[in-house]
Amino acid sequence: MNVLFAGGWDMVGAYLADRLIIEGNHVCWVTGDDTHLLWNKRFKGSVYCGQRSREEYLRILRSNSVDVIVFMTAPLRENFEEFPEYESQIGELTDLLNVLRSYPVKSLVYLSSLELDYPDLYTPVLTDLAAGEMLCQAYHKTFELPVLILRLGCVYGSFARDRMGYTGRTLNALKRQIPLSSSYSEDSLLDTAYGEDAAQALYLLLTLGKQGLYRLFSGHPLTFGEYFSFLGQAAKVRPSVRWTSARRSPERDFFLSERSVNLETGWMPITLLQEKGLEALRKTLRDSSQEIRPRMGSRFFKSVKKCFLRKSLRNLAETLAAFGVTCLLLNFSQDVSDLKYVDIRLMFVAVISALYGLKLGLLSIGLATASYLYSLLAARIDITYFLYSVDTWIPFVIYGVAGTSIGYITDRRRDEYDSLQESHRLLEEKYEFLKSIHGETLDIKGKLQKQILTSKYSFGYAYEVAVKLDSLKPELIILKVISILEHIMDCKKAAIFLLGEQNTRFARLKACSAELRDIVPSSLEMEKYPRIQECFSKKETFINTALEAGYPDYAAPLFAQDRPFAFIAIYDIGADKFTVYFQNLFRIITNLIEQNLAKALKYERLKKDSMYYPGTALLYPKAFQERLNIMLSESDDIAYSFILAKVYPAAAEDRTVTAGRIAGVIRGSDCMGVDADGDYAVILVNMKAEYLDNLKERFRRAGLTLEVVTEP
Hints:
Elements: E1 2-6, H1 11-22, E2 26-31, E3 46-49, H2 54-63, E4 68-71, H3 90-99, E5 107-113, H4 124-143, E6 147-152, E7 154-156, H5 165-175, E8 180-182, E9 189-190, E10 192-194, H6 195-207, E11 212-215, E12 222-223, H7 224-235, E13 241-243, H8 252-257, H9 260-265, H10 273-287, H11 296-309, H12 311-333, H13 344-356, H14 358-378, H15 384-388, H16 394-453, H17 459-469, H18 474-488, E14 494-499, E15 506-512, E16 523-525, H19 530-537, E17 542-543, E18 554-560, E19 563-570, H20 580-606, H21 608-611, E20 618-619, H22 621-634, E21 642-649, H23 655-665, E22 671-674, E23 680-685, H24 692-701, E24 704-710
Parallel strand pairs: 1-2, 1-4, 2-3, 4-5, 5-6, 6-11, 7-10, 8-13, 20-22
Antiparallel strand pairs: 9-12, 14-15, 14-19, 15-16, 17-18, 18-19, 21-23, 21-24, 22-23
Helix pairs in contact: 1-6, 2-3, 3-4, 5-7, 7-10, 12-13, 12-14, 13-14, 13-16, 14-16, 18-20, 18-22
């Protein structure tokens, strides 16, 4: 990614910039702040200081091939005390947004504040933040600009106190033993996040291409009393706080409610203020402790010493010292005949170029040339002779070629060495980072492993589901389906419909979740759902990926003897469950239900002679009572109702004839039998009381009298 940071210095932006550069991304910064560094000194990146026009913004974006912009708002966030004067950032944001109308980017990140969710807390500072959010959202809706808004709480980190927002200001007051004043009460809540953790969450959201509004919660809110106590521990001072209770914070549920960042990215906070955060604050206090200012004289000598210790000045001094030694050797060579065959000046040029590189190599060439000319003048040789005789140029050429070539080779090898060292350092940092991540992952893995053992997706719960469905009574299995689907699929709207043996045009509601009681009709006309019918004909699960109105999100048929006799449907499961994982999970559960139902129906067919009167669907008294007991036992777990009623024929007649009359009136989801009193009885599933009069009329037309025993 090529990332442009815009706005004043921001702690989250600083941590994010370092992370991006370590990961091999290119960063640059447009800012009016000329005193702070956004990223580590060892890292490289372009910085454009001062206010910029729209044309300049566009030029910067194009020259750096920017595809992600992070707009930083640290001066407007963390206003938990009296609201200070501020400089609005709306003008800068508006210019940037207008530029993005003609320049495509992958994402615009706007850092905002959780304080916008606080009750009755809209102040001028926060209104500026809210206006920025509204501007970004308006450009997103109007011009389809990809926008990511991240609301942050109280962020702290390992920076100087004057750059750490509210936490830094509080630490300054504690170190100076200034009494604190809070406009909140002692038990009011706030959420704190370590800057590196917040930057990690933002980095994950960026790499996953997320858009929209996200709230970042550590999941461990603190009361203001606890917060000041922890800062007091870091500063080794007992805080004195005056609580005015003029403002209030949200309830604890607010700080524990939304988990979008955690669920969508897998992010977890590593450094909590009450644990590792205290050490980070103590380190900050140690690093920024004020030292006693030295006296003027000692400051002068210290500056002089520092100058001499600088590498470039030290190298220059060594070069001049070597030149002095060279001049002494030249004087000494006049008395020693063997030294006449050694070019001491050439040796000086070669040694200096090899030790210090091209820059001081050129200086050594100049010094050697000056020394040679001086020796000629001392020997009373006319200098003009050199201008006309090419042979006399040879020493100068040799000095120049030797110095420049050796200096160039030295500089190139030094650059290669520095590059290798930088690569090695970056690899070491990545290794240390991965090592820490590996350790944290192992720790988290151990914790999650314990949770998985008791979760709804564990093998233990799979066994529990299998035990619930292990029954030879179809009615019991059908009624257990709702609670199993609700728990496994994490939904509150599940239903099971029965299809008629002869006529599959209509599906009768057998049972459903409590939230579907007044929503789903008791009878569905299947011709109105052609896509479901098409999937069922192929024995496939219907997935409503097109989000068609009126259709369930998932629907799966249940087959017995190659005939669909029922189907399961779930509604309003949420966009996060339209994944392959949940689709496979739904198929596995429905397949398990289908297998157990098929087994129970086969058993019921084999035991038909002992359950039904011959040639009818009329249950014997014992079987009818068992069916009634099942429905009574399960009525508290799911949302379904039934009416128990007695049926009296108008005249005495054969039992087979009466059973046929009753079967012609009731629905496929109902059942009939002979009760313990020897009378005909029916169980009318999901029959509403307002339809009883119509039902009684239907029975009367069939020559039967319906007498209600229990109402829903």
